[in-house]
Amino acid sequence: EVQLVESGGGLVQPGGSLRLSCAASGFALSSYWVHWVRQPPGKGLVWVSLISTDGSNTNYADPVKGRFTISRDNAKDTVYLQMNSLSAEDTAVYSCFSDRGWGQGTLVTVSS
Amino acid sequence: QSALTQPASLSGSPGQSITISCTGTSSDVGAYNYVSWCQQRPGKAPKLIIYDVSKRPSGVSNRFSGSKSGNTASLTISGLQAEDEADYYCISYTTSNTAIFGGGTKLTVL
User: Fold this and answer.
1) pLDDT given for residue A103 in this prediction
2) Are strands A34-39 and A101-102 parallel, antiparallel or unpaired?
3) Cβ-defined contact of B98 to A101 (cutoff 8 Å)
4) In the 3-class helix/strand/coil scheme, how is A29-84 assigned residue by residue?
5) In chain B, which residues have pLDDT < 70?
6) pLDDT, tens digit, for every residue of A71-92?
7) Quick one: CA torsion of A64, A67, A70, A76, rounded to 10 degrees?
8) Best of A27, A60, A102, A106 to disrupt the B interface by mutation (most B CBs within 10 Å)?
9) How many beta-carbon pairs below 8 A join chains A and B?
10) CA dihedral (A82, A87, A92, A98) positive or negative
11) What is the pLDDT of residue B30?
């Protein structure tokens, strides 16, 4: 079965860090560009970041630029999102997607 | 960059066909054939239903189809079913090497 599975979310204090993972099963994620998106509670989907197949091309939405870093390990069929200097405005369900599908998401809550 | 423009809501009866539009600019929808659509049922994670304007991932019903003309992409759902009631979002790659979502369309099946 083709699946994307996110992990690494949780409760973090303002100013803290988290690393999210997006792992693929049933297909080779290395062949696909991958996007991270987020959805604040009760709101719509917002694009966060993208990475090309070999990791040489990455980009970020303005609100996270300089704080978030996307990377990938194609040997592990996994894409990561390192999130630093988190604030309450980053609270959301984070999910990854590629042309093969969409993950179920992981909740990030930034609160003291 | 402003979100892509989608109708906030649409409704249809079972068996009907409906079309959701997604209007952008020559810097996003009109620039490339990289428009995707996802379906989000209440309380659930999004599900990819269309990518590259008109391609369906494995397992997605052929009742879903996508197209594009100029700066507007469209998602058509034929033979509307109760299970199609959901929020639908378009997303497009842009000339700035980013991506941008539409505001979402709430589809109600009457």
Assistant:
1) 96
2) unpaired
3) no
4) HHHCCEEEEEECCCCCCEEEEEECCCCCCEEECHHHCCCEEEEEEHHHCEEEEEEC
5) 1
6) 999 999 999 999 999 999 999 9
7) -130
8) A102
9) 59
10) negative
11) 97
| Token pair 């303005």 in the structure block, residue | A62
What is the pLDDT averaged over residues A43-62?
97
**Residue numbers in B near A37 (CB within 8 A):** 91, 101
> Six-digit token pair at A39?
């959805």
pLDDT score recorded for residue A105: 97
Span A32-37, mean pLDDT? 98
Residue A9 in contact with partner chain B when CB distance is under 8 A: no
Q: Which residues pair with A101 in a beta bridge?
A: A98
Q: Which of A80, A110, A89 is nearest to A10 (CA)?
A: A110
**Average pLDDT value for residue range A100-106:** 95
CA B22 to CA B10: how far, in whole Å? Answer: 13
At residue A88, φ and ψ (nearest 5 deg) are -60, -30
